[in-house]
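Pipeline run #58 for the internal structure catalog. This entry was flagged by the ingest filter as a single-chain record with no existing model, so it goes straight to prediction. Upstream metadata was stripped on purpose; only the residue string is passed forward. Reviewer on rotation: M.T. Logging verbosity set to normal.
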Amino acid sequence: MALGDGPDDEALDAAWGDFCDRLKAAGRQSFKDFNATSGAQRADAFRFLTQNLGQAFDLALETRDPRYPSIHAFCTPTRKLGGDCADFTYQQAWIDGESAYRITGTRGTARFFNITVQGARPVGPHVLHEPFGDVPEANVFGHQLNIEPDGTFALYIGGPERGPNWLPTTSASRKLFIRQGFDNWDERPGQLRIERVDMDSPKPVPTAARMVEAMGWAGEFVTGLMTSWPEFPFTSGGVDSEHPNTFPATDATAADAKRGRTAANMYWELGPDDALIVEFDAHEGLWMITNMGVFFTSMDFLYRPVSYTPSRASVDGDGKVRLVLAHDDPGVHNWVDTQGFERGNLTYRHMLDGELAVLSTRLVTRTELDDALPPDTKRVNASERTQQLWERFNGVRARFPL
């Protein structure tokens, strides 16, 4: 048997060819002007593409039937997308507004826990590529759930109202977005499962038409992510590429309240002998700082000190947190590794409990760094840095099935 012998051969072959053409065109986007020309940063662009190639058909086909939902790990230490925070886990599940669903599992001990019903994607030039752009319709935070004494719970989505552990849906509902945010390394994620409550038959085997549709969706996905990033935050997300190394002013919006967080992003550029000091008052509430590459993906948070939260950052005697972005270890506790990249993005997130921080920056040379920091700045030696990295390594591994 050969190509053309089956009734769907021509459609499948054409769809696959189109996907491969889109993938090749997406790879060309790695060389865009926003990306630095070093081998490491060019390679990072292709890594961004290949990591998401690994989930293209999970999103387009394997998890996409809302009558047979499954929880998909959207970002992991080896898969990054969408300005992901190094101290969050992100999961999603495709749903519809006609079915009723049940999520069961454990709450875990993550300091931040949120499940959101996402509605229809707006139409327009300022909407990010699939699977982003959805409008939050309803959400529940961890403290709003009724949790059993053993730490378990059941949450119903759609169908008739079932008391506090219930989220309504609408005809436009199309997915769930699940986020857990961590502070201490010993916090553990909740373990969750989802099912449609009236499921009574096996999941259908994909038809040729369904496969063709999935190839088209996956092609749009890989094209979209390489086209939209990193331009989208500069054109539509309030990130200022014209004034590097400075955070924009930030206020919480109504949309932030639905998501349970607000964020500010700084585009940075560092020369080989530069260091950037980021400082802000230590403040109440859960905040997070994540260093990201050019394509707005978190840097290697499994092995490198690229993120900080209140419990893991040292505070100077004047009540300020000072982080130091540098290409190599400056011997301070709050070192933010750049992975040797000359360009990147640093994101501050605040979980809307307490006041937002005002972030200021100072660009100094490495020889000026010690004099620019207070005398009581917490220092670390080589063995202490190794211990810090081991704590990170073990903490991150406990959040993901690694």
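catalog note: The chain has a mean pLDDT of 94.
catalog note: The longest helix spans residues 39-62.
status: ready for reviewer M.T.
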